[in-house]
Design goal:
By secondary structure, the chain is mainly alpha-helical. It has a domain of 51 residues. The chain is built from 4 helices and 2 strands; from the N terminus they run αββααα. A hairpin with a 4-residue loop joins β1 and β2. α2 runs antiparallel to α4. The N and C termini lie far apart (49 Å).
């Protein structure tokens, strides 16, 4: 029943201290550690990352186009085009 309430596959009790375990929480009354093992679908993850990369490259191209447009630079508030320039620099690094 505890597994269902916590939405976990397994609950186990340990005799040793969990304080040195990563992801652990220690109080005066109890210690708990969550062990998270997630299966990664490499193909799906690669597709997701490629899609995200494409979106970021598209945004970068848009920012570069705005910064190359002298009319935009002349009309836009300096803070706006500085944000575009800093976003471009952070994405390129």
């Amino acid at each position: 029943m505890l597994e269902k309430l916590a939405n976990v596959s397994e609950v186990s009790f340990a005799r040793e201290s969990l304080s040195n375990h990563p992801g652990s929480r220690t109080t005066a009354q109890f210690e708990v550690a969550v062990i998270y093992e997630r299966k990664v679908d490499i193909v799906a993850e690669r597709e997701r990352l490629q899609k995200e990369l494409g979106k970021m490259e598209s945004e970068l191209a848009g920012k570069e186009k705005q910064l190359a447009n002298q009319a935009f630079i002349g009309k836009a508030q300096p803070m706006l085009w500085r944000e575009c320039a800093s976003a471009r620099l952070s994405w390129k690094s």
